[in-house]
Amino acid sequence: MSTPRLGGVSLTALVVANMIGAGVFTTSGFALADLHTPLRVLAAWLAGGLLALCGALSYGALVRRLPASGGEYLFLARLVHPALGCVAGWVSLLAGFTGAIAFAASAFEASLLPAAARPPWLPADTLAIGVVLLAALLHGRATGLGAWAQNVLVALKLVVILAFLVFALLASDPQAWQGAALRGADGRIGAFEWGAFAQVVVWVSLSYSGFNAAVYVAGEAIEPRRSVPRAMLLGTLVVTALYLALNAVFVLAPPPAAIAGHEDVATRAAQALGGDALALAMRLTIALALATSVSSMVMAGPRVYAQMAADGVLPRIFARADAAPRQAVVLQAVLATGVILVTRLENLLSYLGFTLAVTSALTVASLFVLARRERAVPMRGWPWLPLTYVAGTLVIALLTAWRRPAEPLAGLVTVALGVFAWWLARRRARQPAA
After folding, report:
1. Please, what is the angle between helix 38-65 and helix 224-252, to 10°?
2. How far apart are CA 292 and CA 135, in angstroms?
3. CA distances (Å), origin 52, targets 104, 141, 251, 314, 387
4. pTM of the prediction?
5. In this predicted model, what pLDDT tens digit does every residue of 108-134 receive, in sequence order?
6. Torsion of CA 184, 188, 192, 197, to 10 degrees
7. Using alpha carbons only, what angle is made at residue 138 by residues 134 and 139, rounded to the nearest 5 degrees?
8. Per residue in 58-80, pLDDT tens?
9. Helices 126-141 and 265-310: crossing angle, nearest 10°?
10. What is the C-alpha to C-alpha distance for residues 318 and 198, in angstroms, rounded to an integer?
11. Which domains does the chain have, with CATH numbers?
């Protein structure tokens, strides 16, 4: 095992990179169409941030108990049962990282080079696969090199986002912002509905997933019991503040009819504030955010597979044996490339939301197993913070399943693969050596 290289800055950058992706730039148009007023939309973003904060504090308690790489696989395997950990590891392999990387990379290509603007000589998915391979090259060579490159990109992303917010506040007249309530044909504002609000929080929560990114590399962190929980807390607070500020601009700057029900809400808001030049700058910002998201997941995911291989759940070739889990990084790049080639964006989104919500809720629920076993849990706000996260996340999973019943079936197939992998690992372990 290599000497830990990741300090607080790199860990926080990993969390921020993992969280800020396409969701914050695309969700609020649909949210405004359902909730009718900008304040209700911002309340949904605040609710998502508070739920993510409960999750970050809960994961912090887990990593203080088990300060090693592996994430959900490690926590569930050590605190509950190895079989459940194996299932969580396969969920990470197929959905948590492979599916999420494919989604972010495909969205990166769609943002940087829409299909209508792509030259005929450039095959589809070329840019998406290219950004995955570049991230694999950086993170497969050495932990320090990949972390340094990612820190630079995250810093650039934050600077660009802050510059947009400053421009929105100073270079334009806030009095001229046209954002207002969305009114119906009769001129009235739609009534508040808890069901619609809950559904918007489901969408919003996908943008907050990734608050736990630092736990996957805890084994390479400096003083992980202190630095990893702090990075998750700080990263979640920073991202929540940025999300609220960005969405305030998105739903208040343009007229409501121009953004309600539209996916490209960020570029429409930028167009209203600064014309074509600012709209183009926003598209590049979205692409940068997605590129750093791909980088962060290519960095984190292989650490889970390396831990699974060390435990015998995956082939030993993927276990870490040098400065970076190179074989696991190659595996991650190959799987993500395959998913990019065979799956479309909309099919991935709901599958990821349901499957990751269930796994994350089970992981935080393992704190209750720990509390019963050791009579103490190292966190403040016990038991209300983890209870809030588990309940809220399970509601999100149920609402996702209700909207798209096919996604839970895909999630169950993923679980079945995890159970089968556990059975194979146990059978191999029982066989005598030749």
Report:
1. 170
2. 9
3. 20, 32, 22, 30, 13
4. 0.88
5. 888 888 777 778 888 888 999 999 999
6. 30
7. 115
8. 999 999 999 998 899 999 999 99
9. 40
10. 41
11. 8-428 (1.20.1740.10)
